[in-house]
Each structure stands twice: as structure tokens, then as C-alpha cells.
């Protein structure tokens, strides 16, 4: 790629990035740290190992985001160990910080862009997927298909990042947000229910719709989760707020301020006692959390994943914090992937990430190995849990249901926190009575439409 084309495309990339209200300067002046951080010490320091002799230096640039991946602290340890043991590679890590008041995580990506303009080009970039996608659209990321084997990853992971036959980024883990209810109460056919399904359940159930719901803002949070996941198509850069958001705003505006049935000051309901219908679940790995919740909340009774209400019945959704891409003009593309394959995406490290609950692994081998022992007998830490030993083990049907959820959930890694902020901000005016639903939808269509067009 010619340098003039690089400069023009990067200028276009930077023009789409907000400065977070602060003057932007070179990352070298504003929080860029050379070497792998020593997070245990609370500060970013020089790596304890030095590049030497015949080693190939692979530069990894990491752009911080508001949704900073918790797994990074394990990555630093892995890379430090890798540097000390590898005879071939040395990984040089550079972190680009975000401004404290940056809600969207744009300032770190801008600092990285400025360094690339100055010919300080990394081999690998790690960033929030929607930020990394801006680099992809400007032609800066290579196609990883020439290096990776699709069959090594979960199929839904590959399909989530493949665009136009190319895979230009890959993420190490994902986390699932869903909600479950007893099948006996909602039926087996209500998996991934719609907004209409959820509103009908709210109107017909005698208790609270969701567990531990105290105010209408708890209910709003539950309904908005599905809206964020289903209204926006980040690949096609389109949104459908009329069908996705309007029914939710209409329902939430109609409920009492208390938001639940406990207007006399009673405690909020829970699914264990049957006073609430739905239990939200955050699945951050193949660990004991899931069988524990099945035991504690549902007593191992059959459940249905109703998920979060959406217009399309999408239901459950996955969150991806950070992804990795390799620069198209890196002179060490294959070596850069070799480093990632030996560290972040090795089966061994994928299982380590799971052990620390840093997310569901994307490696098919790691998932299958972890699933082979999943649901084994365990001791519940919940004193109210039943003591029947038979209930401490998931049935084969329950294990299969869990695996189906992991391997079939539609993952959209490009969900943009900027758009989530816009929707919540404009919706507040509706709840405060200062704007009609139609006005809110029109304003959001314009705001989000403009934002999507600018980042296309």
C-alpha cells in the first residue's frame, strides 16, 4: 500500500473518532507504556526480559476501552513467561490509555492512529471489536484465514467475525447474558421470547417478572438489554428502532413507578421461592456457576432460556470485550499469528482463561475438553441449596442444553457502547415526560443513522 493511501485512510479513520473532550497528543506523551505491564504491582513497568540477538520482536499495541477485558492480567503473565522461554520471539507491548471522561473508548484508538501516522506501526492490534473494525474498513488488517484453521474455533465465533469471506480479527473469549425461567411456568416454546411474550408474562404472573426487581428501572434494564442486542445491525450499519425500541418504551412508560407488585414495601421476589419468574444469568466460563444456579434457583428442574425480550426473539446475547488483528503492512504477519497461537489462542491458555472465569473459550478443543467434565458433583456454597446428592449433578439433557447455548448463540462482537449511551440518554426524556416516544425514535434514528454512516 502506498504511503499516501495509508495517510489518507488513517486521516479518515481518525475523523470518525471522538476526542473525549480533551486535546489529543501523541501516545508517547499521554500514558503509553513500553513493555509488558506488571499489574500485580499496580503500575506499568518495563518488561523484565529484554529482546536479544536473533529474536524476532513482535509489537503488540493495546488500546484501552471502557469495557476493559478482565483477562488482560492473565495475558501479561503469559506474555512475560513466553518472552523468557521463547528462543524465537520477543513480544513488545505498548498500551494506549483512554481519557478518564471518555465514555466511548475513542481516545485510545486515536492515540494509536497518530503513532501509525508517524510510522510507528505495530504487528498486532488489540482493541474493542468496534474500534478494531474501523481499522479493518480502512484496509489496515490482514486476512487471518491464511493462518488460522476455522475448525479450531467454535462455529458461531468464526461466523461472527467473517465478513466478505475474510477473517480480519479474532477474540479470545466471550461472555453470555441470558435469563431462564421454569419450563413448567413459561413453556418449552418460549425460548428467546419476544417483547410481547415478556409483557404478557408481566401482566399474567402474580409475582415479579424478574428476580430482585425493586423499581421500574430494574425492569427497564432487563428490557433494554435485548434492545441493544437486536435493534442495530453493525455489519450492515442499519437500525430498526421503530419495531425494536418503540414497544419497549411504550410498555415501560405505562408501569407504576414502583415497577413491581410489592407496593406495600415487601421484599422483592426471587425464582427460588416462586415469587419471581425470571432469573438473569451471566455465564463467564464453563465453570460451577451454571450448575450452582440451576441447583440454587431451580432445583435442577427443566428451564427455558427466555433470554432478553427482543422484537425478533433473539433472546440471549454475547459480549466481547477485546479482539486481536494483525496489521496488513506488518513484515511479520505469519510470525505474529504464531505468537498469538502459542499464547492467547493455545488450548492450554484458553482453559486457563476459563479457570479464572475470564470468559467462555473460543477454542473448540478447549470447550469440548471442559464440557467432558462439566456438571460433575460439587459442593454448593449456598446454605439454602438442597442437599440431595443426586441434584448436585447436571443431567445429560441439561449439559447438552448448556453446550447448545454456548455453541449456537449468535455473537455480535461489534456492539458499540456509543450507541448504547445514545439510546439510554434519549430514552430518559421519555420516562421524565419531556418527550413522546415518536419524537424519541425520530431523534435516535437520526443520531444513530448519522453515527453509523460516519463509521461505515
| Dominant shape | globular
CATH topology of the largest domain: D-Maltodextrin-Binding Protein, domain 2
Proportion of residues in extended strands: 5-15%
Query: Whole-number radius of gyration?
Result: 23 Å
CATH first level of the largest domain = Alpha Beta
Intertermini distance: 21 Å
Number of strands: 15
Mind explaining what this structure looks like?
The protein is of the alpha+beta class and 456 residues long. The chain folds into two domains: 3-173 and 320-361, Periplasmic binding protein-like II (D-Maltodextrin-Binding Protein, domain 2, 3-Layer(aba) Sandwich), CATH 3.40.190.10; 174-318 and 379-454, D-Maltodextrin-Binding Protein, domain 2 (3-Layer(aba) Sandwich). Helix content is 40%, strand content 14%. The chain is built from 17 helices and 15 strands. The protein has helices spanning 3-15, 72-85, 106-117, 129-137, 155-161, 183-186, 195-204, 216-230, 241-244, 246-254, 289-298, 333-342, 347-355, 364-372, 396-408, 417-431, 437-454, and strands at residues 33-34, 56-63, 89-96, 124-127, 162-163, 166-167, 173-182, 208-210, 232-233, 238-239, 276-283, 303-305, 317-319, 323-326, 360-361. Strands 7, 8, 11, 12, 13 and 15 form a six-stranded mixed sheet that branches. Strand 2 (56-63), helix 2 (72-85) and strand 3 (89-96) form a beta-alpha-beta unit. Helix 1 packs antiparallel against helix 3 (106-117) and helix 13 packs across helix 14 (364-372). The longest helix is centred in the C-terminal third of the chain and has 18 residues, at 437-454. The chain is globular and about 70 Å long. It starts with a helix and ends with a helix. Mean pLDDT is 81; it is low at 1-35 and 38-51.
Amino acid at each position: 500500500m502506498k504511503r499516501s493511501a495509508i495517510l489518507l485512510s488513517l486521516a479518515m479513520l481518525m475523523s470518525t473518532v471522538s476526542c473525549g473532550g480533551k486535546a489529543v497528543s501523541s501516545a508517547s506523551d499521554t500514558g503509553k507504556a513500553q513493555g509488558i505491564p506488571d499489574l500485580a504491582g499496580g503500575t506499568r513497568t518495563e518488561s523484565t526480559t529484554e529482546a536479544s540477538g536473533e529474536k524476532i520482536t513482535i509489537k503488540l499495541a493495546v488500546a484501552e476501552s471502557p469495557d476493559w477485558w478482565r483477562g488482560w492480567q492473565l495475558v501479561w503473565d503469559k506474555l512475560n513467561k513466553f518472552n523468557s522461554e521463547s528462543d524465537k520471539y520477543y513480544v513488545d507491548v505498548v498500551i494506549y490509555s483512554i481519557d478518564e471522561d471518555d465514555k466511548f473508548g475513542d481516545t485510545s484508538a486515536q492515540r494509536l492512529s497518530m503513532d501509525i501516522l508517524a510510522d510507528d506501526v505495530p504487528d498486532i492490534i488489540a482493541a474493542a471489536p468496534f474500534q478494531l473494525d474501523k481499522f479493518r474498513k480502512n484496509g489496515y488488517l490482514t486476512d487471518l484465514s491464511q493462518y488460522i484453521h476455522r475448525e479450531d474455533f467454535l462455529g458461531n465465533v468464526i461466523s461472527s467475525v467473517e465478513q466478505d469471506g475474510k477473517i480480519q480479527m479474532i477474540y479470545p473469549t466471550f461472555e453470555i447474558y441470558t435469563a431462564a425461567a421454569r419450563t413448567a411456568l413459561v413453556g418449552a416454546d418460549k425460548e428467546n421470547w419476544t417483547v410481547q411474550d415478556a409483557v404478557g408474562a408481566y401482566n399474567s404472573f402474580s409475582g415479579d417478572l424478574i428476580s430482585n426487581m425493586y423499581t421500574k428501572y430494574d425492569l427497564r434494564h432487563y428490557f433494554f438489554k435485548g434492545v441493544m442486542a437486536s435493534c442495530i445491525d453493525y455489519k450492515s450499519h442499519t437500525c430498526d428502532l421503530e419495531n425494536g425500541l418503540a414497544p419497549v418504551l411504550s410498555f415501560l412508560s405505562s408501569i407504576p413507578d414502583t415497577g413491581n407488585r410489592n407496593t406495600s414495601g415487601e421484599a422483592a421476589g426471587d425464582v427460588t421461592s416462586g415469587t419471581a419468574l425470571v432469573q438473569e444469568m451471566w455465564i463467564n466460563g464453563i465453570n460451577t456457576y451454571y450448575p450452582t444456579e440451576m441447583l440454587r434457583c431451580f432445583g435442577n428442574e427443566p428451564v427455558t432460556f427466555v433470554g432478553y425480550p427482543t422484537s425478533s426473539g433473539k433472546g440471549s446475547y454475547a459480549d466481547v470485550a477485546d479482539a486481536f488483528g494483525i496489521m496488513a503492512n506488518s513484515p511479520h504477519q505469519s510470525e505474529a499469528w504464531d505468537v498469538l497461537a502459542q499464547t492467547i489462542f493455545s488450548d492450554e491458555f484458553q482453559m486457563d482463561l476459563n479457570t479464572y472465569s475470564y470468559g467462555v473459550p473460543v477454542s473448540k478443543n478447549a470447550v469440548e475438553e471442559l464440557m467432558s467434565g462439566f456438571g460433575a458433583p460439587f459442593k454448593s456454597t449456598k446454605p439454602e441449596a438442597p442437599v440431595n446428592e443426586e441434584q448436585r449433578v447436571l443431567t445429560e439433557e441439561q449439559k447438552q442444553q448448556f453446550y447448545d447455548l454456548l455453541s449456537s448463540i449468535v455473537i455480535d462482537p461489534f456492539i458499540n457502547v456509543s450507541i448504547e449511551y445514545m439510546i439510554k440518554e434519549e430514552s430518559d426524556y421519555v420516562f421524565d415526560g419531556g418527550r413522546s416516544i415518536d419524537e424519541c425514535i425520530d431523534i435516535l434514528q437520526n443520531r444513530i443513522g448519522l453515527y453509523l454512516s460516519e463509521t461505515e
